[in-house]
Amino acid sequence: MHPRTATTDQAGSVTRRRTYCRLCEAGCGLVAEVGPAGRIQRVAPDRDHPVTQGFACNKGLLTGEIHHDPDRLDHPQARAESGEFRTVGWDEALDGIAGRLREVIDRHGPSSVAAYIGNPGAFNALAGPAAGLFVFQLGGSRLFAASTQDCNNKFAISEVLFGSAHVHLIPDLDRTDHLLLLGTNPRVSKGSFLSVPNPVAKLAEITARGGTVRFVDPRHSEPVVGETVQIRPDTDAYLLAAMLHEIDRSVGFDAAALARAKNVDGLRAFLAAFAPERVAPVVGLDAGTIIRMAREFAAAPAASAHMSTGVNMGRQGALAYWLLHLLVLFTGNLDRPGGNVSSTRGLPAHGGADVSPDSFVRSKWGDYRPVSAIQPGALLADMINDDESPIRALFVVAGNPLLTIGGGDRLADALRGLDLLVCLDFYRNATGELADYALPTADWFEREDLNNFVQGTQPRPYLEWADRIVEPVGERREEWRIFAALGERLGLAPVLRPDSPDVMADYFDTQLAAGGLSMAALRRAEGGITFLDPTEPGTFLDRNLPGDGLLDCAPEILAGTFARAHQIFDELATEPADALKLISRRTLHTLNSALQNVEKLKRTRAADNPLYLHPVDAERLGVDDGGAVRVASAHGKLEATASLDPSLRPGVVAMTHGFGNQDTTGMPVARRFPGVNVNALAPSGPGTFDPISVMSHLTGIAVTVEPVAAGGGVETP
Ligand SMILES: Nc1nc2c(c(=O)[nH]1)N[C@H]1C(S)=C(S)[C@@H](COP(=O)(O)OP(=O)(O)OC[C@H]3O[C@@H](n4cnc5c(=O)[nH]c(N)nc54)[C@H](O)[C@@H]3O)O[C@H]1N2
Ligand SMILES: Nc1nc2c(c(=O)[nH]1)N[C@H]1C(S)=C(S)[C@@H](COP(=O)(O)OP(=O)(O)OC[C@H]3O[C@@H](n4cnc5c(=O)[nH]c(N)nc54)[C@H](O)[C@@H]3O)O[C@H]1N2
Ligand code: SF4
Ligand SMILES: [Mo]
């Protein structure tokens, strides 16, 4: 137990232990009150946390209940022939998995073993590395991750721009006069790639000092500061292109920026097609609005821009992220106070990514470019079903691909057909229901951790170490221990070794040494928090532009991305005026699929997954508030309950992902309130993802909506 993170009450029965929340990127400081027998009695916001200062949301405060949820996996389970799960010992589970892996590798080679690392892997310092190292050590190479559902476009473009997937520029919130936010709802989600506690309060500071906060979003989201420009879904790249076009023709590109850039003619050739007047009908805004947005951004003393999953999950998140950088650069706002700036990282970003056109994989499913070995999630079913080089064994670590990527029945069938599916999770979730083995893992309170994922995206940079504060319940184990035990059975020499006295130091010390730090130093720091020296703007491009120090405005690797942009533009321009588009909607009562077994949330608002639609559309389609609707896309269909939502742009409908637990016997609460899986409507397979970033397409999906007649049948004339 670490003295600096623990205090005990006078009676000595309750210990208050400091930790931080690992549900989202805000990383709120929490205090867990640990009672007799290691029972977590309460989780409260940590008012003494120097950064998050007592901010926390409803979800973080429920983590104690998840820790003690009786439906958690506390022992390994194996699926019997009958389909029933039975509890087995760790040795039986590990021997069984290792035996089956040997058979799979003998028959299909090591490339038939793959892993999928889910979103919570980002907040679990050793889980992702352990899974990746295991697959690579076996001789495999295929990794999948939730990043192809949320941010791979950013990784890919940062590689193109700065040679590293992990170098990102964030808005200088304290000094900006104008903040453009595309596809983010900080009130609900607290955002991504911009790690601030209480982001809404931060935005309010900008407007309070007379600045502008402008959201671009098809939905006028939960009450928040600033104004919202209601764009048509999946068209943000064209808005950004038109803003750049306008700035070039009426204001002029910033002279200092031009001196740092090359291939500006290539950029101008691309932008030529995207004048505000031509783009306006496609993005669903007046040309005048686009022109005003562009000129105000350019005229602000200091302007910054940020985009998030609402854009990332469209078809052209990579192009949008690239254009966003050029907008910031050519208005003189890149790496200047109040613009987009770099933040100090406590762990170095790996550089030197290959961004030549040769970095594309030429496959039977088309050319695509994996980022950090991450394969397209949209091809998971295809790669499992492939007859030449199939995936036959899959490890799912902290993820639930069955519900979180497109593919519906096709993906379910593929997962069912695997020779070996092993899920490492808190619960036997919907994907786990198809598994051969469901393995219980340690949670936030039961393991040591480090906030490595948010490095470089914090306005006030710090490393935070969290101690294990209670012993694991039952036989829960950390993921790295599970992979080490499997590795040993397969004759590998695991990199993360259970006999090591300090496995966190083994993995992180070399990286931390770059900043003069070590795990030992982080553990000694007050409250586990080590502040890093802030990075002053002004030298970013000198430090981060490889080669000749000039930013290539039309790199060869983006040629296909540009061609695809013209093609998608033509498709959008000829769409019928009454086409409906489905977008994603997060709520305060859900966190992807992860909180679906929390009874308290089900008793409030997350009992069902409605289809939100604008009253004007409801009227046109003959749909009543609360009535049943059938929603169909080119990829699947589902039935849901309609809920009228005037905050949507007409023509746009919305649903929440992470529901669809009607068969999840391992999560009985979730199963009682299953909702429907919106990703039954999402595309998967060749041609459905962005080749440059392998991002799935999960927002702006064309759908039709029709009322279902009372009694459940289809309405007949
Ligand atoms: N249509 C649509 N689809 C989407 C999205 C959308 O907006 N719309 N959003 C996408 C986004 S942003 C994301 S990140 C993905 C998420 O996709 P996934 O990562 O595939 O799914 P999650 O629902 O986050 O599943 C997390 C699982 O990890 C378990 N878990 C939690 N913590 C741990 C841990 O420390 N260790 C282990 N072993 N298990 C743990 C939870 O119990 C849960 O079962 O979904 C994406 N899918
Ligand atoms: N409560 C809660 N918090 C969460 C999560 C959660 O599920 N629930 N998930 C966590 C995860 S994994 C992530 S990655 C982050 C994500 O955090 P954010 O990226 O901020 O995601 P959202 O809050 O869903 O905001 C996305 C916004 O994009 C809008 N949008 C949809 N389509 C488009 C489009 O085509 N163009 C534009 N411009 N906007 C569009 C939506 O209306 C929505 O307001 O949140 C994290 N925090
Ligand atoms: S805002 Fe995010 S990090 Fe903070 S308590 Fe809520 S879920 Fe946890
Ligand atoms: Mo995410």
TrEMBL record:
The keyword tRNA-binding does not apply. Residues 14-71 form the 4Fe-4S Mo/W bis-MGD-type domain. SMART domains: Molybdop_Fe4S4. The keyword Protein transport does not apply. It holds the Pfam family Molybdopterin. One of its GO terms (molecular function) is metal ion binding. Keywords: Iron, Iron-sulfur, Metal-binding. InterPro entries: Asp_de-COase-like_dom_sf, MoPterin_dinucl-bd_dom, Mopterin_OxRdtase, Mopterin_OxRdtase_4Fe-4S_dom, Prok_Mopterin_Oxidored. Belongs to the prokaryotic molybdopterin-containing oxidoreductase family. PANTHER family: ASSIMILATORY NITRATE REDUCTASE CATALYTIC SUBUNIT, TRIMETHYLAMINE-N-OXIDE REDUCTASE. This is Molybdopterin-dependent oxidoreductase. It comes from Frankia nepalensis.
